[in-house]
């Protein structure tokens, strides 16, 4: 889910750039039509049946440029334990105390890459960023039907603006889901709850801040910090509504609401397909009892959204 947010940011930036270019475009109509293409980014996901431990230290990962654009995809090529048997470690996030126990570690340091266990993380899928044509044939035809350059430009900009709005809405919804899922997990977990969405956002901020000044995107950092604040605030609001009211907390976040949100996430126009793949195929019962016994829990819902120890650590 964190990656979907990152992807939305990348694509929003691209669309906005194209929009700015379009505004100042001043050639003939033929060349305008010829340039009615632009590539957006999409995540290709390959699921693994097991977690692997990779190193996220700066020297152990590699960035690759995709296509003609300068978008960078992070490749975690340093696989320190390719089939890790530790279960319940949050994926995509560093700073996990549990990874001290990974077979790759000795005395807190990795025997393969020598980095601290805290910069390592679990991944249960590998992702690949690919480019795809963003503008549909339908949209292009609609634009081409307009009679002159001015109205074609207007039509194109309107199309771009629609997409910006849609992506921003999707992002908002993903954050809302993350907040609900976070509170839900916290309320129901018997064990210490690890907010991995929040951790993930922190990691992105740290990564961007660590970049050299010339390529560092300060606007992006500010945006991510704002996003994180929004997320925390939203979570607090939900928590307050649980603690203040005499209402049963099951009424505040019924499991049905969680299912419903998952459904909606998977059917989002732009990011639904990716989220569906990322949210996982595994639907199974929780292996341990919750604070209050409930119906069946779809563990797969959480392992990827909030890949926390909540899902996999059996009650002892
Ligand atoms: Zn391991
Ligand atoms: Zn390592
Ligand atoms: Zn390393």
Task: Give a verbal description of the structure.
With 316 residues, this protein is α+β, with helices and mostly antiparallel strands. It folds into two domains: 1-38 and 165-316, no CATH class; 40-133, no CATH class. The chain is 48% helix and 15% strand. The protein is built from eleven helices and seven strands. The chain has a three-stranded antiparallel beta sheet with strand order 4-1-7. Strands 2-3 form a two-stranded antiparallel ribbon. A hairpin with a 2-residue loop joins β5 (105-106) and β6. α1 (2-23) runs antiparallel to α4 (149-188) and α4 packs antiparallel against α8. The longest helix has 40 residues, at 149-188. It binds zinc ion (3 copies). One zinc ion is lined by residues 55, 78, 80, 104, 110, 112-113, 115, 120.
SSE series: HHEEEEEEEHHHHHHHHH
Number of strands: 7
State the end-to-end CA separation.
30 Å
Task: Report low-confidence residues grouped into runs of 5 or more.
Answer: 281-316
Taken together, the total number of domains comes to: 2
């Amino acid at each position: 889910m964190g990656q979907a947010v990152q992807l939305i940011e990348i694509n929003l930036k691209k669309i906005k750039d194209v929009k700015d270019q379009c505004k100042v475009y001043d050639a003939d109509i033929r060349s305008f039509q010829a340039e009615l293409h632009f590539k957006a980014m999409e995540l290709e996901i390959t699921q693994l049946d097991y977690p692997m431990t990779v190193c996220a230290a700066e020297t152990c990962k590699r960035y690759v440029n995709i296509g003609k654009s300068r978008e960078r995809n992070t490749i975690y090529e340093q696989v320190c334990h390719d089939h890790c048997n530790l279960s319940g470690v949050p994926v995509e996030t560093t700073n996990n105390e549990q990874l001290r126990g990974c077979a790759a570690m000795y005395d807190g340091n990795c025997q393969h890459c020598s980095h601290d266990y805290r910069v390592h993380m679990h991944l249960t899928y590998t992702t690949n960023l690919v480019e795809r044509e963003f503008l549909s044939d339908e949209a292009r035809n609609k634009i081409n039907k307009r009679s002159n350059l001015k109205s074609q430009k207007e039509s194109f900009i309107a199309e771009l603006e629609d997409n910006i709005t849609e992506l921003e809405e999707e992002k908002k919804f993903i954050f809302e889901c993350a907040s609900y899922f976070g509170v839900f997990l916290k309320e129901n977990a018997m064990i210490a709850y690890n907010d991995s969405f929040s951790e993930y956002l922190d990691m992105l901020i740290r990564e961007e801040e660590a970049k050299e000044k010339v390529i560092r995107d300060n606007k992006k950092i500010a945006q991510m910090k704002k996003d994180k604040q929004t997320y925390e605030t939203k979570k607090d609001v939900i928590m307050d509504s649980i603690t203040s009211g005499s209402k049963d907390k099951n009424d505040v976040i019924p499991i049905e609401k969680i299912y419903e949100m998952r459904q909606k996430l998977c059917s989002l126009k732009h990011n639904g397909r990716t989220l569906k793949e990322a949210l996982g195929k595994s639907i199974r019962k929780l292996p341990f009892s919750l604070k209050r016994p409930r119906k069946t829990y779809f563990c797969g819902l959480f392992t990827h959204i909030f890949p926390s120890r909540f899902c996999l650590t059996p009650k002892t």
